[in-house]
DNA sequence: GCCAAGGTTATCAAATTGTTAACTAAAAAT
DNA sequence: ATTTTTAGTTAACAATTTGATAACCTTGGC
């Protein structure tokens, strides 16, 4: 899976702030852009479509509130996190910032580490859960657990639940041999007791339905996905 | 869709804090539960499965960090927002709280209005699809949630509320299989207990009313929209 | 040939879903 | 206020699909 780095734009009129925060963001693995005022922030945002924008509220040209409002009126930045940063420590600004669509509001002075930590927490929350089912793609075979769907060469093959789960288990680690015991505990669960031939029968059904040799028998050991 | 109020659990050993924050949360339309220590927080969390938990860090029995860690080790609370609240104002706690899985970390004293505002911002961010009422258009089928209206091939079909909500849920992510549990919690809500056949009956009504094969059964798993 | 391991098939039981009708509660109409 | 309509739910039963097993077959090694 393609793992482009997460892009963050930081807009502040104090070069020192930009420098120190950029440093910490880079160290945390983000890709960083910067802007020195509100207008530049909008320009850079349009160019790079960052995943997160850190906005100082008091900036020349256009202040943070204005930039935030502009971004939120644009569908392009729907999913862009906005972190507002300010030396003002008043309740009104705080609430205003959040109501304009800010995702976080942080008072200066702020430890760069804490800021990075907060941003990471936001990303963690909005990212689709890591436990989400992942699509397996091998040559012309697609196995999609979120749809319980197996597509071979453009044709959808409908597998029953157990068949699908068995295939998915094996295909998740192509080449690896799964012992019969492993297969039983993963697909059937630990407390279920089924007979010796059950796995074989299911393997057969998969072979028949897909019509390809994708599950290899390893005699005396188990089965592996090999395609 | 499901319009049950958002549930928030607040855990703090100072009754005054609970009272004032509860007041503001209730005023903002949330349903509020409270706990006076860490153990009670966990109990109440298990009973009510709140959408957000506000945890004071310094509490008797189990402190906020411990509760946070416990919640995060439980899949049941995957999607539960955790806001950590503390009078300690040190960088280490702040980072620790976020790394343990907290979604926000707020220093006391905090204006209740600001706190509510922050929580609302978090919900706004994580529930983008829950609030957006987008029209779904697939071939000659239009599903318009703003009007609770389904148009197939120019003809308007009137679906009842639950029928419509079920169809909309599935159609919002075509192809994706929704487990029966997911459907129940999305359309009927977490607290409602309905019988096994209820979903089937509603699916049938949709099928009959629309007269097309748009909902596919995935036996042993759930249903998906496929048209 | 004999044995062990796996393959194949048919069959039956169990699980799951589909269908219909009836009941209840709420909303709308009279 | 009463009746009528509608939506939602449930129960009972039918239909279907899936899963498991037994029985038998095939293959390869010794």
Can you describe this structure in just a few lines?
Two copies of one chain form a homodimer. Chain A is α/β, with parallel strands linked by helices and 227 residues long.
How would you characterize this protein structure?
- Two copies of one chain form a homodimer.
- The first copy, chain A, has 227 residues and is of the alpha/beta class.
- Chain A has two domains: 7-126, 3-Layer(aba) Sandwich (Rossmann fold); 136-225, Arc Repressor Mutant, subunit A, CATH 1.10.10.
- In chain A, 41% of the residues lie in helices and 22% in strands.
- Chain A has eight helices and twelve strands.
- Chain A has helices at 15-27, 38-48, 64-72, 91-99, 112-126, 161-172, 180-188, 197-210; strands at 7-11, 31-35, 52-56, 81-86, 104-107, 136-138, 141-144, 149-152, 155-157, 177-179, 215-218, 222-225.
- In chain A, the strands form three sheets. Chain A has a five-stranded parallel beta sheet with strand order 2-1-3-4-5, sandwiched between helices.
- In chain A, helix 1 (15-27) packs across helix 5 and helix 6 crosses helix 7.
- The longest helix of chain A has 15 residues, at 112-126.
- The radius of gyration of chain A is 26 Å and the shape is elongated.
- The model of chain A has no long low-confidence stretch (mean pLDDT 89).
- The structure holds a DNA duplex (30 and 30 nucleotides).
């Amino acid at each position: 899976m393609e793992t482009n780095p997460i892009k963050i734009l930081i807009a502040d009129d104090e070069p020192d702030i930009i420098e120190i925060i950029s440093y910490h963001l880079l160290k945390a693995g983000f890709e960083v852009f910067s802007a020195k005022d509100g207008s530049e922030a909008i320009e850079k945002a349009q160019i790079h479509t960052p995943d997160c924008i850190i906005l100082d509220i008091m900036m020349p040209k256009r202040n943070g509130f204005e930039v935030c409002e502009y971004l939120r009126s644009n569908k392009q930045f729907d999913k862009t996190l906005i972190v507002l940063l300010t030396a003002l420590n008043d309740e009104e600004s705080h609430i205003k910032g959040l109501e304009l669509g800010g995702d976080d509001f942080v008072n200066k002075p702020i430890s760069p580490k804490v800021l990075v930590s907060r941003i990471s927490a936001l990303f963690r929350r909005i990212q689709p859960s890591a436990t989400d089912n992942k699509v397996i793609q091998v040559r012309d075979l697609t196995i999609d657990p979120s749809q319980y769907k197996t597509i071979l060469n453009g044709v959808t093959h409908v597998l029953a639940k157990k068949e699908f789960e068995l295939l998915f288990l094996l295909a998740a680690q192509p080449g690896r041999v799964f012992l019969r015991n492993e297969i039983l505990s993963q697909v059937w669960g630990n407390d279920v007791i089924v007979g010796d031939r059950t796995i074989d029968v299911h393997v057969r059904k998969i072979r028949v339905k897909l019509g390809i040799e994708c599950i290899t028998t390893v005699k005396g050991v188990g089965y592996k996905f090999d395609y």
